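Problem statement: downstream parser choked on a complex file, so we are re-checking the raw output for the zinc ion run. The parser issue turned out to be on our end (a line-ending mismatch), but while we're here, posting the original submission so the record is complete.
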Amino acid sequence: MPGSDLAPAGDRGVLLLEGGLVLTLDDAGSAGPLSVAVEDGRIAAVGPGDALRRRFPAAGRVDCEGRVLLPGLVNAHLHPELQVLKGAVEELHLHDWEDAAHFDQALVLLSSPEGRWIQRAGIRAALADCLLTGTTCLATYGVTAASDEVAAEELVALRLRGHVTVRDVSFTPAERPGPPRIYRLHAEEALTPVELEAAARAHARGERLIMHAAETEQRLELVLERFGTTTVRLLERYGLLSPRMLLSHALYVDDEERALLARRGVPIISSPSAEMKLADGIAPIVDYVERGVPVALGTDSAVCNNSNDLFGEMRHLGLLQKLRFGADAMPAERILRMATADGARALGGWGEHGALVEGWSADLVLLDAHNPRLQPLVHRDGYSNVAANLVYAATGQDVTDVMVAGRWLVRDRRLLCADGPAIWEELARAASALYDRIL
Ligand SMILES: [Zn+2]
């Protein structure tokens, strides 16, 4: 029954997940037929099945035969309320969206009290879709009034790990209950010296910030025109470059700026599906990785991606980077780490989640390895196609089970933390009400 498995595994003693093919994706990068012990919501051990059975003789057991077991995925950039507008601005470049009158009307409606239930339906559906496709941690980014507060409530309701943004151009410190907050600067066209100064003060007091940066040539031209310099140099001028300044996209960044990002440890969030669909260009991800710039992944939004599936982002990132930098660029396991470890690092969660490590939170996903998409799956000394299969063949549909902090939130492709069918019915009702108003 929904809810019956929601108590953390540790509340009922140790739980042994055994028989699966495990990728820890930690620094050691262990992979193979291993068991994972979960206790008190945390990973108690990862090791050979026999050893863990001896160590935890009274443990409950979960048969993971035929499953690949991974750390949960991290989606570091998502505009969840736009789920309800999937397909609304097809065949349009980002800077032509403003010409789509129905899109503007929709955003106004979602921001109004009467549209709030439509906004919530979109947010809840997007988050549920993320969860069902293997995401255990995500950073939402609101674009309509009060959507961040709704996202915070829905993250808590679904028991997902997450972060939401705050749009406050004065960057006033405030205690806010719920998930951690990230201040947002939006994009070049919205920047003012006053806001940048306020952002710098917030940054100096330890806040995390995010900005859509250097996504398009138009935005680069705009910042050059207004500030006489490029986006990354402008942020450096205000002391805004650090591991706590997340840059979404970062396509139009020159050589000197990339070196600066590496020196300052600034994380990039790449959303390759959206960047392709909007014809933004191809981000220099291979170069970023070679320089040591952390790169996380995001799905961006349903209006410029149409999917919340991070497996799609992994595949597209790999294909696109090979197209630009050559077939030997960007090994599959490196891409898996972007969707897990690097996402956790970008959001300040490394040390708690992002890899399967003893003592860290038990955030993990199981995939159906018997699915024809993942066959043949070969893992032996000296050869493995598992990482390549996960990046280039798997989809979120192959995720069968999802655990966050030791709680099963998805079992056998079914949400345990919410009424799945009701979420999709509400989304359809919301979309219908919205299009009745704007078309
Ligand atoms: Zn975005």
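For whoever reads this later: The CA atoms of residues 157 and 417 lie 8 Å apart.
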